[in-house]
Amino acid sequence: MKRAVCPGSFDPITFGHLDIIARASSLFDEVVVAVLVNRTKKSLFTVDERIDMIREVTTKYPNVVVDSWSGLLVDYCKTNQIPIIVKGLRAVTDFDYELQMSQINLQLQNVETLFMSTAPAHSFLSSSLVKEVASYGGDVSSYVPAVLLERLKARLAENIGLDN
To answer: Is the pTM of the predicted complex or chain greater than 0.85?
Structure first.
């Protein structure tokens, strides 16, 4: 069985993420979407909320499973016998960083990295950008699945209320 992992924070998951996940699911028997547990980063949604949202929007891909991890991704890969990491690249700046990561992952645990260029329609898209635009009331409906849009707006409204 050919397995791969698509890692990220997915806070929230965007159409750019989904594009990479969908394309990876057509190449591998199983794709694990691994949600980053990063205690030093303030996330809008909890890990469990992100996992639930990803599961909800990937139901049409029966070979996609969702999990989380804390620590080195290559250790997660080794523990779960996943030999390939799939990463989406938006720009040259992504490549510079991801190339270094792929080289160290190969050296540490012999885990390969497959780079997929994002679809042009999503090449500018990031979760941070979506949160920023939405926090100012901008329309992000073309960037995130409709089923997540209200959750995003509600969470941002809660956070704005807490800051006042």
So the answer is: yes
60 is catalytic: no
Q: Is 151 a catalytic residue?
A: no
Q: Annotated catalytic, 17?
A: yes
Segments making up each domain of the chain, as ranges: 3-123
pLDDT tens digits, 80-128: 999 999 999 988 777 888 889 999 999 988 999 999 999 988 888 999 9
Active-site annotation holder among 9, 17, 43, 102 = 17
Catalytic residue among 9, 43, 102, 127: 127
Q: Strand 30-36's sheet: what is its strand order?
A: 64-69, 30-36, 3-8, 84-89, 112-117
Q: What is the CATH number of domain 3-123?
A: 3.40.50.620
90 is catalytic: yes
| C-alpha 18: how far from chain center | 8
Using CA atoms, how far residue 155 sits from 128, 135, 158, 160, in Å, is 14, 10, 5, 9
